[in-house]
Design goal:
Number of strands: 7
Bound molecules: zinc ion
Helix content: 25-40%
Structural class: alpha+beta
Number of helices: 5
Radius of gyration: 15 Å
Number of domains: 1
Strand content: 15-25%
Strand order of the largest sheet: 6-5-7
Length: 115
């Protein structure tokens, strides 16, 4: 079992599939993502909390529809076609409402020199 896990890791998003696919969700922070979750990232924004490991999946259309801030909306629209899986420092459980600002924040300010 140990050897098998070294070869393939459990997907950090669904925690149901084994995968060898890596994705960098935040600078220097890699997770494992299975093909199914990568596929669903085309239609959904996926956030993974680096604090507690919670995973949040929101349909892109729904996120865009709810956004009223034009700047934020623009930032989300820019990455609407990308497969977004993003690591966040806190999730809605740690800090309600903070999650909505993450994609916008990441697009607007490049976190250079931040580790
Ligand atoms: Zn998965
Ligand atoms: Zn959290």
């Amino acid at each position: 079992m140990e050897d098998f896990l070294n070869y393939k890791r459990l997907c950090n998003v669904c925690r149901a599939e084994l995968t060898t696919i890596n994705a960098e969700v935040a600078p220097g922070w890699q997770i494992h993502v299975c093909e199914k979750c990568l596929e669903s990232a085309k239609q959904n924004f996926i956030w993974i909390c680096m604090h507690c490991g919670n995973v949040y999946i929101r349909p892109k259309m729904l996120v865009l529809k709810r956004l009223t801030d034009p700047m934020l909306k623009h930032a989300y629209q820019q990455c609407a076609d990308e497969q977004i899986i993003q690591g966040i420092d806190v999730c809605v459980e740690c800090e309600p409402d903070a999650i909505m600002q993450y994609v916008g924040a990441a697009k607007n300010e490049k976190k250079d020199g931040h580790c």
